[in-house]
Each structure stands twice: as C-alpha cells, then as structure tokens.
Amino acid sequence: MRTYFFADTAVLTGRTMRHVTRSMDTIITTAITPIAMMLLFVYVFGGAIDTGSASYVNYMLPGILLITIASGISYTAFRLFNDIQGGIFERFQSMPIARSGVLWAHVLTSLAANLISLVLVFLVALLIGFRTGAGALAWLAVVGILVLFTLALTWLAVIPGLTAKSVEGASAFAYPLIFLPFISSAFVPTATMPGPVRAFAENQPVTSIVNTIRDLFARQPVGHDVWIALGWCVGILVVAYILATMSYRRRIS
C-alpha cells in the first residue's frame, strides 16, 4: 500500500507540476508582488527606518520571503478548487489509486512552485544589495524553516480549496496571511509600535520566524526565537493537516 501511495503521488504530482510549468505566469505573478514591495520599501521607505548597522534590504528580506510564500499558496487553493469543480476528484475516485495522493500532489506542487518564487525574490535581493556571511548550516536552517512554513500554509490552503463555494472564496483566505508580516518585526522594529499593536506583533508567528531567519543570515545567536518559530510552524502544520484531511474525507464520502 505504501509503495502504491508513493508511486501514485509521484504520478499525480507530475500532472499538477505540468499545469504549473505550462503556466509559468502564476509563479512570476507570485514573485512580482513581493519583489515590488521589496523595491518600494528599500528605495522609498528604507531611508526613514532605523535598523542599526544592518542595511535595510538585509533587515526586511525575511519578511518579504514570508509574503512570497503567503502569495503562492493562494494558487494551491485555486488549483484544488478547479480540480473539484472540473470533476477530477470524482474521476480519481473511480480509479485504483491512493486517495491521499491527490492532496499530497497539490501540496508538493505548491512546495516546488513556492521554492522557485523564493529563488527569484532572493536573486533580486542580491542585485539590490543583500549580503550575508551565513555558513552552510545557517543556510540549511533558513531553508528548513521556509519549507516548514510553506508546508504549514499549504495544508492551510487545502481547507478553503476543498470547502469554498467560489474561486474568489478559495483564494481570498490568503490575503490576511499576506498582510500579517506588516504587523510584525518584518519591516520595522516592534519597539516603535504603540502598546497594543506591539503586543500583538511580538506574539504572532511571523515575528519569531522573521527574527530567526534574520539572525541566521547575520550570524547572530538565534536565542529562543527559533523554538517559538518551530513551535508555530509545527503547530499550524499539524492542525491544518488534520482539518484538511477531515474536509477531504467529507468531500469524497
């Protein structure tokens, strides 16, 4: 059964990846908005924000990377919704394939597409001055956190993809996630925020993830932020996975 699951998931992932590669504009579109934000903040607002000795592009890149992921997962919900509306799920149910492979195919495709978008954003960041002396282990840690965060949000995207009544409803859930980094330490130090806003900013998942990635790039001790970041990512992933699989079972029952 496990062999069939991996084989079926590989075939189904190839199918969804072909849809992405035939429409690369979705990946480019996903990357364009974060890149435009990055250029806007660096060249328009960056001079007015005090980030100490760090250049502003170094300071705000972790937040831009998270926005890139949040933008990309909306397409996961969109593709999943289209498959349901097109009757693809009903067709798959009549075939001798692992049912969970259908969901995993969309999740793995989302992960691959988001990684491509992240690379594009990072290359632009290099062009406008981002620099880091991070070693191999620090880079592995950054990639690991970004992959874990992408998986967590992707399984979250599966839920509206399965339950939404319209295309707009399937993808609109991502908008609050895109704006969440703006109320965090991603673009300005939280110490400059009013009391209630600061309290929210310092205790939401984006701040701990951003601080961890920023410290890894800067070769600074990550402290307890890394454990908070991992806790948020794993917690969201587990809850989203359970809710997504429950929604899937109800949908195909």
Automatic annotation (TrEMBL):
PROSITE patterns: ABC_TM2. Its main location: membrane. Pfam families: ABC2_membrane. It is found in: Cell membrane; Membrane. Residues 25-251 form the ABC transmembrane type-2 domain. GO terms for cellular component: ATP-binding cassette (ABC) transporter complex. InterPro entries: ABC2_TM, ABC2_TM_bact-type, ABC_2_transport, Nod_factor_ABC_transporter. The chain crosses the membrane at residues 27-49, 61-81, 102-130, 136-158, 170-188, 226-244. One of its GO terms (biological process) is response to antibiotic. The keyword NADP does not apply. It comes from the Bacteria. One of its GO terms (molecular function) is ABC-type transporter activity. It is a multi-pass membrane protein. Keywords: Antibiotic resistance, Cell membrane, Membrane, Transmembrane, Transmembrane helix, Transport. Belongs to the ABC-2 integral membrane protein family. This is Transport permease protein. It comes from Paractinoplanes toevensis.
